UniProtKB/TrEMBL annotation:
Top-level taxonomic group: Bacteria
Active site residues according to the UniProt entry: 263
Binding-site list for NAD(+): 30, 35, 86, 122, 155, 266, 331
GO biological process: polysaccharide biosynthetic process; UDP-glucuronate biosynthetic process
Enzyme class: oxidoreductase
InterPro entries registered for this protein in UniProt: 6-PGluconate_DH-like_C_sf (IPR008927), NAD(P)-bd_dom_sf (IPR036291), UDP-Glc/GDP-Man (IPR017476), UDP-Glc/GDP-Man_DH_C (IPR014027), UDP-Glc/GDP-Man_DH_C_sf (IPR036220), UDP-Glc/GDP-Man_DH_dimer (IPR014026), UDP-Glc/GDP-Man_DH_N (IPR001732), UDPglc_DH_bac (IPR028357)
Organism whose genome encodes this protein: Azospirillum cavernae
Catalyzed reactions per annotation: UDP-alpha-D-glucose + 2 NAD(+) + H2O = UDP-alpha-D-glucuronate + 2 NADH + 3 H(+)
Family: Belongs to the UDP-glucose/GDP-mannose dehydrogenase family.
Chain sites annotated for binding substrate: 152-155, 207, 252-256, 260, 324
Keywords for the protein's UniProt record, in alphabetical order: NAD, Oxidoreductase
GO molecular function: NAD binding; UDP-glucose 6-dehydrogenase activity
Name the UniProt record assigns to this protein: UDP-glucose 6-dehydrogenase
Pathway where this protein functions: Nucleotide-sugar biosynthesis; UDP-alpha-D-glucuronate biosynthesis; UDP-alpha-D-glucuronate from UDP-alpha-D-glucose: step 1/1
Length: 443
């Protein structure tokens, strides 16, 4: 089989490379000439574990290639995937569909045989029909069908998520399109991945329902963590106590500084707007959005409080700025709220992140970037952990203490144990756990 993938970002590049690993011939297209040049040279423009090997292997096998030319990419394809960005539209929070519609027009100009046009981007209900109308208008006689195939991969574990997904959702408008999609996903069908075949509208909504549900689950445990702090309970034990209930499940019950990233913030907002537009408001999700926005802003206050209530003239060492580990994605990262708030309060921020500093430099002016963890800590008044990279999990605490002016750690990812930190002589604060708690029997 042969496909074209429009957009070589986090989703397009991973999906394209994974389909090529399945044996499909994939041409990835992007408008960003520098990105395509780098990919042609064998460089991977994003940080995603394992992607470099996967791409190199499939390029060498002749199944994966990169181009700026959509016409060339669409020659003889069974399907063309739209995997372009759908960011929040400035001002109103609706999904900005200009890239999707732009891609639809370009597809229409190049359709010369039956092709399934698949939206892999996260798009509001009704977008597939609009894509169909755009193509029809530009190319009234073109032979094509529309399908929706939302992507559920997570950055940082994107390849295994794509190769072994919990499910694949396909919204098809004809049996012919459904058959092409089934053939593409045949390797997953063989390992018994559930494939949910549904209507276009249902597939589009399923993606938003999944992301908003997960955002609500994170927000729920964040609020329970705040309550734990007030009543002397331990949120990790609460999470375990409820998560073992099969109806609730253990995942996404880890408290933190608020969800961020390229999907949850924009997708929660976009679904809120869609629901309001059709007169069926999602009040739970409206509240989730509000709580999460406020939470990210409140986090700086926690750090300031841990530094004695005033950070004027102080240096705060920040470990991690990416929205989560194993990615360099800075989109809507909590650090984008926390770091400027610390600076506004008079602090100098010295930060280190294993992968995201090249992106973060553009977004966080005034930060002093350190070459490694320990140089970030040297002479700082306190340290805060904003991203739970593995390399922050086993710091040499003696060395940390010796480098800091005062042994103050604010751990917004709860990667250390309060008792261990107390024993090591730290003034340690984390989320939803009493400062120095007797070890719980379940820990
Ligand atoms: N990032 C994730 O973890 C993730 C997970 C699931 C779903 N999604 C969804 O997938 C979509 C893509 O997200 P992303 O993070 O990969 O975006 P991205 O911004 O990393 O990549 C989008 C790419 O599309 C290119 N592009 C835009 N218009 C184009 C056109 N007309 N022709 C060719 N290239 C074009 C851009 O240059 C860019 O390289 C979004 O709708 C997102 O919500 C993302």
């Amino acid at each position: 089989m042969r496909i074209a993938m429009i957009g070589t970002g986090y989703v397009g590049l991973v999906s394209g490379a994974c389909f090529s690993e399945f044996g499909v011939h994939v041409t990835c297209v992007d408008k960003d000439a520098e990105k395509i040049e780098r990919l042609k040279r064998g460089e991977i423009p994003i940080y995603e574990p394992g992607l470099d090997d996967l791409v190199a292997r499939n390029v060498a096998a002749g199944r994966l290639s990169f181009t700026l030319d959509l016409k060339e990419a669409m020659q003889g394809v069974d399907a063309v995937f739209i995997a372009v960005g759908t960011p929040s539209r400035r001002g109103d929070g609706h999904a900005d569909l200009s890239y999707v519609y732009g891609a639809a027009e370009e597809i229409a100009q190049n359709l010369d045989h039956y092709t399934v046009v698949v939206t892999k981007s996260t798009v509001p209900v009704g977008t597939g029909r609009e894509v169909e109308a755009i193509i029809r208008k530009v190319a009234p006689n073109a032979e094509f069908d529309i399908a929706s195939n939302p992507e559920f991969l997570r950055e940082g574990s994107a390849i295994s998520d794509f190769m072994r997904p919990d499910r694949v959702v396909i919204g098809a408008t004809s049996d012919r399109a459904g058959e092409v999609m089934r053939r593409l996903y045949r390797p997953l069908y063989l390992i018994e991945t559930p494939i949910v075949i549904t209507s276009l509208e249902t597939a589009e909504l399923t993606k938003y329902a999944a992301n908003t549900f997960l955002a609500a689950k994170i927000t729920f445990i964040n609020e329970i963590a705040d309550l734990c702090e007030k009543v002397g309970a331990n949120v990790h034990d609460v999470a375990r106590g409820i998560g073992l209930d099969g109806r609730i499940g253990k995942k996404f019950l880890h408290p933190g500084p608020g969800y961020g990233g390229s999907c949850f913030p924009k997708d929660t907002l976009a679904l809120v707007r869609t629901a309001q537009q059709v007169g069926s408001p999602l009040r739970i999700i409206e509240t989730v959005v509000d709580i999460n926005d406020k939470r990210k802003k409140q986090m700086a206050q926690r750090i300031i409080a841990a530094c004695g209530g005033d950070v004027t003239g102080k240096t705060v060492a920040v470990l991690g700025v990416a929205f989560k580990p194993n990615t360099d994605d800075m989109r809507d990262s909590p650090s984008l709220d926390i770091v400027p708030a610390l600076q506004a309060a008079g602090a100098t921020v010295r930060a280190y992140d294993p992968a995201a500093m090249h992106e973060a430099e553009k977004l966080l002016p005034g930060v002093v970037w350190a070459k490694d963890v320990y140089s970030a800590l040297d002479g700082a008044d306190c340290v805060t952990i904003l991203t739970e990279w593995n390399e922050f999990r086993a710091l040499d605490l003696r060395r940390v203490k010796a480098l800091l002016k005062a042994p103050v750690m604010v751990d917004l990812r709860n990667i250390y144990n309060p008792d261990d930190m107390a024993q090591a002589g730290f003034v340690y604060s984390s989320i939803g756990r009493p400062a120095a708690l007797t070890k719980s029997p379940t820990a």
